[in-house]
Amino acid sequence: MRKPPAKTSIFLDQAVYSAASLLAVLSVSRNFSPADFGAFMLAYAASMLLLSTSRQYFGVELARTSNEPPSIHDQRFRRYWTTLAVLAPAAFGFTAITSSVGDTVTGTGRLLSMTVALSTPFLLSHDLMRYFQARRAPGVVLIADAVRLFGLASCLILGPSMATWSFCALWFLCHASSWAVSLVGLKGAVLSRDWAESGSKEWGIREAVTATGLLSAAVPLVTGWIVSLSISTSALGAWRGATTLFGPLNTLITLLDFAILGRYVALEQGERYRYLRRLGLAYAGIAAGWGLLLALVPDTVGGLLLGPSWPDATRLLPIAAVEYVFLCAVAVVLLEFKASQWARRITINKLLTSGIIVGVSLTVALTLPSIEFIALASVAGAVAGFALAVSAVLTTSRRP
């Protein structure tokens, strides 16, 4: 039988991986109280920050250098893989510590948080192996992520009938098993002692993408702390539950780099801007349509998705919808930044929007603690990011 092209396998795996990540959150939201879910999301946000750090600094570089000689690429992977192995205890400790924020965390919430902390080293290592094996053994990557997907689907379905410790054990095994499958698929690639040479130190697109990835992961963690300390972990659970339902749009955004950026770069300058307008309207329309669809979801279905967090999450869905309309639009505009190699502008845009979100959230928390107003801080950041990006593109296009 003819094997599917590597790009097709990568696309399928991205869909499976994104679905598994969504189920990782929904399985907890559906089966535990909003307070316990909020405690879980604090630890999960810390885990995602570490994952983004590893992915942007190690994983993206592995993908970028996938065409170099196999021996050199193997050396590069071994260096990254060993670094993560050494840092595994620190990753566990950082994730576990973040769950202690807030005075409403229950014993169940702490158990869920510790499960995330135990899973984090496996998640980081597995993600690195995904990038390393993406073109060499895409079938192994797909199988490993499918194992995680089916395991987390079992958590979602069987959770109501399981004891808390049984649920946590299964949730952990889902991540450990996918890690084990990827490890077996390495076929000895990590056994050599050779090391790779370090890369360029210039601030380019790689560094810009790394910085924006770190900020994207850090902001939810910081705002999660703010909500937990100023309001409650239950409020955090409601907000994170609402944004989790927009997870499919995150996958849509990642496809911009995967499937569209190469085609966009090949366009003439005048065609680019027309393409941006059409694509931006399409993405914003999809986000708005998805938000409208979620608003029409009956409570019975919503309860199946988010469990006890659904009633409080429903009033935050319109805010999340507006945020994602602008997030999708700005992701499209940033295609021009990446195509034109505007590395520093990408970084500055993300720094400013992150500062707005954290600054507004902190101001609200100190003056008028309200989860709705703190959620609106994310909307303000998304709107500002879109305005700054569009302004930069228009200013450049008018230059002679």
Would you write up a description of this structure?
The structure is a single chain. With 400 residues, the protein is an all-alpha fold. The chain is built from 15 helices and no strands. It has helices spanning 6-31, 34-64, 70-98, 107-133, 138-158, 164-185, 205-230, 233-244, 247-265, 269-295, 299-306, 310-314, 317-339, 343-367, 371-397. The protein is globular and about 60 Å long. The model is unreliable at 188-201 (pLDDT under 50).
Structure summary:
By secondary structure, the chain is an all-alpha fold. The chain has helices at residues 6-31, 34-64, 70-98, 107-133, 138-158, 164-185, 205-230, 233-244, 247-265, 269-295, 299-306, 310-314, 317-339, 343-367, 371-397. It is built from 15 helices and no strands.
